[in-house]
User: Which sequence fits this backbone?
């Protein structure tokens, strides 16, 4: 019997289950009809992983308490029970968008539309808190928009699960303190599993939601859960007023107060929060009705990306040299386009739109493009703020709408210094015409720029093959792959699969091969994939991409990165240089080329390239970290200190900047400062400079404690498959025999450390080995030379 059959049996004849809608963080959701009243209901079945530790009886008791909440801004609980051993509950079906869907359509809600939504959520919280019910999972997915009102759903569910866990057989106090919620919106006390969590956790979550509604992004967006936890506990978010200057001062201050780490510093109650919202007067240029046609985000129809790219590229070409005041626009940021009126499930489209257009414009000499990673952080942000943050003079934005076989595109070019719209226009096109007209339109665009490069027409230096395929399905797969590739981590594996599927759809699709090569070259570092299993395939795909499109910068860049694992340093360097020649404004190309040079033991040569990458992408914590590390091993301690601190300021949860800061303190013989940075560094990386600092300071007892911790961690199965961490331990401990054994072991397995993160010749932890004859033997195995500037 299927799960839906079990649910139907448990509900009996009172309800008719029609279909499954999907699921949220805690439940699978079905839609049905309550027969007696003829009304639609949502039936939510608890996820098995949550239900496993839950007392069904206690859960139902807690749900009955939540069911007592009857308020216009609260979706009430109707019934509860058990199906297939899993607790369920029913609620009225709300026919409307969730706040999450609304934000995906157009991040950064107009003030006149945002304030009523926030008031409705605050009313729901005030009523529930007055009746002793805390939500514990306030987030945009649990706020529904219907009939010009916002209603909050799932009140008391997280609390019911929490309470039911402690009442289950084997329930413990540890379970009682366990945190439940969504990482992006969890209060610090929830994250630390404080058993005394109260209504003020909802106020913090409300602050996170309000911040996202007003700025277009949650306080610490684009981070992994572990990084989010650290940020909520210790990092102060950017001031809302800085992100949204037109927000009334009272609202901005109130939201920031809700985000205070200490619950005692937040508004005392949701009722007080509501009163302050209700006394705020807001004036805006547009009413909610005027915003009815606001942009929506989608990605399913890849052809929208193609026509959007064509039209906007045309606009930029025609107006990029237009005078604005006393300066021309020669620097641009391309914001993700939004899709109006389509399926909003595939958010990769917005990312793909920005990526495609940026790639095309990067080929135009005389134009400087903000990097993809930098722009992603400013989606939905005011153009003037984008200009200040990214140091660009122009911002491109727009929308696309599909109606049947017709596409309608509206694009605008904004002067970032004034916020004025320089140009805007609307285009219409047949869907099936997109690929056929793209080449000719792109040529017209480039001609309109009327810029010259070394005496040659720009037209001769720009590829007109934007997508590189005429297969709609292949391009769709490629865009999905690019979206996942940007997330790194375990998403790289799925991105690899999508790129491969795209090449099978169209074997002549050069950019899909480049994407496969790029993802494959990063898998050993991000997902611990054995290099021998993926690098040969990545190299083959990179070569195929270049063969198909010799002007494709990503082909050379991906091939160069993969070649490092084969110790083909010279060939890799030539490919990095070719990628930069084709796209001088590609921050990643400059960064990776610089990284390769310090991996080879040439940190002095690396500095200009990584400095250029920082200029192109100043808000990247990783690039700032890489420059800090290169400066450290080149002996430029002040520059290293400055860049590492900047990287930490940009992302305090990025642990490797703190680790390299510890190495810098070691180099400066500031041993006490090494220990100060230790808590922010990831283990085991932070343990090694800490251990050496204790050794050099003569504190052998503490040195032994750290060494024992490392050794105990290494005894766990599977924690160091490449042997790299073993090499770190023995290199730092002065045990040369063991260090060289593990270095050779790691080199045999092509550990990603040697090619991506630090490299062998200049790594600070191996200083004690450099005078041993075996050191040069090891370098020769990797076709490397001694460090250019070992300190």
Assistant:
């Amino acid at each position: 019997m299927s799960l839906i059959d079990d649910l139907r049996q448990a509900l009996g004849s009172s309800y008719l289950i029609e279909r499954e809608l999907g699921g949220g963080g805690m439940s699978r959701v079905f839609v049905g009809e309550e027969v007696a009243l003829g009304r639609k209901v949502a039936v939510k079945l608890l996820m098995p992983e949550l239900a496993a530790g839950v007392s069904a009886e206690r859960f139902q008791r807690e749900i009955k308490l939540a069911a007592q909440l009857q308020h216009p801004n609260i979706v009430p609980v109707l019934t509860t029970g058990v199906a297939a051993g899993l607790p369920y509950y029913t609620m009225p079906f709300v026919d409307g968008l969730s706040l999450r869907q609304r934000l995906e359509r157009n991040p950064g809600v107009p003030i006149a539309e945002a304030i009523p939504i926030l008031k409705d959520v605050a009313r729901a919280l005030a009523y529930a808190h007055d009746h002793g019910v805390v939500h514990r999972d306030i987030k945009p997915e649990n706020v529904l928009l219907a009939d010009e009102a916002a209603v909050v759903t799932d009140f008391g569910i997280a609390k019911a699960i929490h309470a039911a866990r402690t009442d289950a057989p084997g329930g413990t106090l540890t379970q009682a303190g366990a945190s439940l919620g969504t990482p992006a919106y969890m209060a610090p006390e929830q994250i630390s599993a404080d058993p005394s969590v109260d209504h003020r956790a909802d106020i913090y979550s409300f602050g996170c939601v309000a911040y996202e509604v007003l700025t277009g992004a949650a306080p610490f967006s684009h981070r992994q859960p572990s990084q989010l936890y650290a940020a909520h506990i210790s990092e102060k978010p950017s001031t809302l007023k800085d992100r949204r200057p037109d927000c009334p001062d009272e609202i901005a201050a109130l939201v920031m107060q809700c985000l205070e780490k200490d619950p005692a510093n937040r508004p005392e109650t949701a009722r007080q929060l509501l009163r302050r919202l209700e006394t705020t007067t807001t004036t805006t240029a547009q009413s909610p009705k005027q915003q009815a046609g606001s942009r929506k985000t989608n990605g399913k129809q890849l052809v929208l990306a193609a026509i959007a790219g064509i039209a906007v590229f045309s606009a930029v070409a025609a107006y990029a040299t237009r005078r604005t005041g006393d300066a021309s626009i020669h620097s641009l940021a391309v914001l993700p386009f939004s899709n109006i009126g389509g399926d909003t499930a595939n958010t990769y489209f917005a990312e793909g739109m920005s990526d495609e257009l940026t790639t095309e414009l990067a080929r135009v000499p005389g134009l400087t493009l903000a990097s993809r990673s930098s722009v992603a952080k400013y989606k939905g942000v005011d153009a003037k703020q984008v200009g200040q943050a990214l140091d660009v003079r122009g911002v491109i934005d727009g929308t696309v709408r599909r109606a049947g076989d017709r596409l309608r595109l509206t694009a605008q070019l904004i002067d970032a210094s004034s916020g004025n719209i320089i140009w805007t226009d609307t285009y219409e096109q047949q869907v099936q015409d997109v690929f056929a007209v793209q080449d000719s339109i792109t040529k017209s665009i480039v001609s309109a720029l009327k810029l010259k490069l070394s005496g040659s027409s720009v037209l001769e230096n720009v590829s007109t093959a934007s997508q590189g395929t005429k297969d709609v399905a292949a391009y769709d797969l490629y865009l999905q792959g690019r979206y996942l590739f940007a997330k790194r981590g375990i998403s790289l594996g799925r991105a690899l699969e999508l790129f491969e599927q795209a090449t099978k759809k169209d074997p002549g699709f050069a950019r899909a091969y480049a994407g496969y090569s790029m993802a494959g070259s990063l898998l050993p570092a991000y997902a611990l994939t054995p290099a021998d299993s993926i690098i040969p395939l990545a190299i083959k795909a990179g070569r195929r991409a270049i063969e198909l499109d010799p002007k494709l910068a990503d082909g050379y860049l991906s091939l160069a990165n993969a070649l490092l694992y084969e110790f083909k340093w010279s060939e890799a360097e030539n490919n990095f240089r070719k990628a930069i020649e084709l796209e001088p404004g590609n921050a990643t190309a400059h960064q990776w080329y610089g990284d390769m040079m310090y991996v080879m033991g040439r940190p002095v040569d690396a500095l200009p390239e990584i400095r250029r990458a920082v200029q192109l992408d100043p808000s990247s914590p990783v690039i700032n970290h890489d420059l800090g590390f290169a400066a450290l091993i080149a002996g430029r301690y002040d520059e290293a200190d400055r860049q590492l601190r900047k990287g930490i300021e940009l992302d305090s949860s990025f642990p490797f900047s703190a680790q390299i800061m510890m190495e810098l303190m070691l180099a400066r013989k500031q041993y006490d400062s090494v220990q100060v940075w230790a808590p922010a560094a990831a283990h085991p990386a932070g343990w090694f400079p800490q251990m050496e600092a204790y050794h050099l300071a003569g504190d052998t007892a503490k040195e032994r404690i750290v060494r024992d911790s490392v050794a105990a961690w290494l005894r766990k199965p599977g924690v160091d498959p490449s042997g790299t961490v073993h090499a770190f331990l023995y290199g730092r401990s002065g045990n040369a025999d063991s260090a060289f054994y593990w270095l050779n072991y790691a080199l045999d397995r092509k550990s990603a450390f040697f090619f991506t993160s630090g490299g062998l010749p200049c790594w600070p932890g191996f200083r004690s080995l450099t005078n041993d004859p075996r050191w040069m033997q090891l370098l020769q195995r990797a076709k490397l030379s001694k460090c250019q500037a070992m300190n």
Observations:
- Residues 157 and 324 are 55 Å apart (CA to CA).
- Residues 111-130 form the longest helix (20 residues).
- The first strand starts at residue 15 and ends at 23.
